[in-house]
Amino acid sequence: MRISSMTKAWIAALALAAGGSAWAGVQVTFDKPDDYSDVPFSSRDREQVLEGLANHFSWLGKGLPQGQELRIEITDVDLAGREDPARRGAFDVRVMTGRADWPRLRLRYTLEQQGKVIASGNAYLSDMSYLQHINRYPSNDALRYEKRMIDEWFKNTFGVQPQGRSRPVMTLQPRDVQRK
Length: 180
Description:
Blueprint: H1 5-22, E1 25-30, H2 43-61, E2 68-78, E3 82-83, E4 94-96, E5 104-113, E6 116-126, H3 144-158, E7 176-177
Parallel strand pairs: 1-2, 4-7
Antiparallel strand pairs: 2-5, 3-4, 5-6
């Protein structure tokens, strides 16, 4: 059976139209990132952290049902651990004690399907026992604790179980964990 070129063009146009609206994705924005509670001192590392968070949300968004679009506005970031100014040299050093240095994120989100809002709200993510959990992200991923926390929120809020792992953020210096 031979398919005419006109039929092929219509099939291609329909596929493009369906594909464009079937999965619109995740849009992540950052509200006043210079005022965040705890992000790296260096602008290069700060950029890497924000880009890594945005990429992780986008990666998780691939698990949303077709036709859903998620908008996330991050309003505050407090990374796991604390930067230790006494240990600064050529690189910033982040020290984790497992006390009051757990990761936290504040955000607003809106989930739409075919232009209608189906879920929205403000969320405050935190993981007080971040050093006690089994973490599926490698130890050289600078956002491993934050990603685990975001995965849990995404699963509980949208019912999406992460499959695999997002790209690691490896440009930051490894974290120094101090257990006492």
